[in-house]
Protein backbone atom coordinates (compact mmCIF):
# COMPACT_ATOMS: atom_id res chain seq x y z
CA UNK A 1 0.00 0.00 0.00
CA UNK A 2 1.37 3.39 -0.98
CA UNK A 3 1.77 6.14 1.60
CA UNK A 4 -0.98 8.77 1.50
CA UNK A 5 0.03 11.99 -0.23
CA UNK A 6 -0.17 15.53 1.17
CA UNK A 7 -0.55 18.53 -1.06
CA UNK A 8 2.29 21.10 -0.83
CA UNK A 9 2.58 24.42 -2.57
CA UNK A 10 5.84 26.34 -2.91
CA UNK A 11 7.58 28.84 -5.13
CA UNK A 12 10.61 28.16 -7.33
CA UNK A 13 12.58 30.31 -9.73
CA UNK A 14 12.13 30.13 -13.49
CA UNK A 15 15.51 28.41 -13.77
CA UNK A 16 14.55 25.80 -11.15
CA UNK A 17 11.25 25.28 -12.99
CA UNK A 18 13.15 24.63 -16.23
CA UNK A 19 15.43 22.20 -14.43
CA UNK A 20 12.48 20.41 -12.85
CA UNK A 21 10.72 20.08 -16.20
CA UNK A 22 13.91 18.79 -17.84
CA UNK A 23 14.52 16.20 -15.11
CA UNK A 24 10.93 14.99 -15.18
CA UNK A 25 10.95 14.72 -18.97
CA UNK A 26 14.32 12.96 -19.14
CA UNK A 27 13.33 10.39 -16.51
CA UNK A 28 9.76 9.95 -17.66
CA UNK A 29 8.53 10.98 -14.21
CA UNK A 30 6.07 13.56 -13.02
CA UNK A 31 7.52 16.77 -11.63
CA UNK A 32 6.11 15.81 -8.24
CA UNK A 33 8.01 12.51 -8.31
CA UNK A 34 11.26 14.34 -9.10
CA UNK A 35 10.68 16.58 -6.07
CA UNK A 36 9.86 13.59 -3.83
CA UNK A 37 12.98 11.75 -4.97
CA UNK A 38 15.12 14.87 -4.40
CA UNK A 39 13.75 15.18 -0.84
CA UNK A 40 14.51 11.52 -0.11
CA UNK A 41 18.04 11.79 -1.50
CA UNK A 42 18.75 14.98 0.45
CA UNK A 43 17.40 13.46 3.68
CA UNK A 44 19.54 10.37 3.18
CA UNK A 45 22.70 12.47 2.75
CA UNK A 46 21.86 14.55 5.83
CA UNK A 47 21.41 11.41 7.96
CA UNK A 48 24.86 10.22 6.91
CA UNK A 49 26.56 13.37 8.18
CA UNK A 50 28.29 12.93 11.50
CA UNK A 51 28.18 15.29 14.43
CA UNK A 52 31.69 16.82 14.70
CA UNK A 53 31.55 16.71 18.51
CA UNK A 54 30.75 13.00 18.47
CA UNK A 55 33.58 12.46 15.99
CA UNK A 56 35.99 14.26 18.36
CA UNK A 57 34.75 12.19 21.30
CA UNK A 58 35.26 8.98 19.31
CA UNK A 59 38.81 10.06 18.44
CA UNK A 60 39.57 10.89 22.06
CA UNK A 61 38.34 7.45 23.12
CA UNK A 62 40.14 5.69 20.27
CA UNK A 63 43.50 7.31 21.04
CA UNK A 64 43.02 7.18 24.81
CA UNK A 65 43.40 10.92 25.33
CA UNK A 66 44.25 11.71 28.94
CA UNK A 67 41.77 14.21 30.33
CA UNK A 68 40.29 15.00 33.71
CA UNK A 69 37.34 12.82 34.69
CA UNK A 70 35.36 15.87 35.81
CA UNK A 71 36.06 17.88 32.65
CA UNK A 72 32.42 18.14 31.65
CA UNK A 73 31.56 19.67 35.03
CA UNK A 74 34.61 21.84 35.67
CA UNK A 75 35.63 22.84 32.13
CA UNK A 76 35.42 26.56 32.98
CA UNK A 77 37.90 26.12 35.85
CA UNK A 78 40.32 24.26 33.61
CA UNK A 79 40.08 26.89 30.87
CA UNK A 80 40.62 29.70 33.38
CA UNK A 81 43.70 27.90 34.69
CA UNK A 82 45.12 27.65 31.19
CA UNK A 83 44.39 31.32 30.56
CA UNK A 84 45.88 32.45 33.88
CA UNK A 85 49.06 30.44 33.29
CA UNK A 86 49.58 32.12 29.94
CA UNK A 87 49.12 28.92 27.95
CA UNK A 88 45.97 30.00 26.18
Main features:
mainly alpha, 88 residues
SSE sequence, one letter per element: HHHH
Number of strands: 0
Q: Low-confidence segments, ≥5 residues, pLDDT <50? A: none
Shape: elongated
Q: Main β-sheet, in a few words?
A: none
Q: Nearest-angstrom radius of gyration?
A: 25 Å
Helix content: 55-70%
Could you give the distance between the termini? 61 Å
* Beta-strand share of residues: under 5%
Structural class of the secondary elements?
mainly alpha
Write down the oligomeric state.
single chain
Average of pLDDT: 86
The tally of helices reads 4
Describe the structure.
This protein is mostly helical and 88 residues long. Helix content is 65%, strand content 0%. It has four helices and no strands. The chain has helices at residues 14-27, 31-48, 52-62, 71-84. Helix 1 packs across helix 2. The chain is elongated. The model has no long low-confidence stretch (mean pLDDT 86).
What is the topological layout?
Layout (H helix, E strand, L loop, with lengths): L13 H14 L3 H18 L3 H11 L8 H14 L4
Produce a short descriptive summary.
It is elongated, with a radius of gyration of 25 Å.
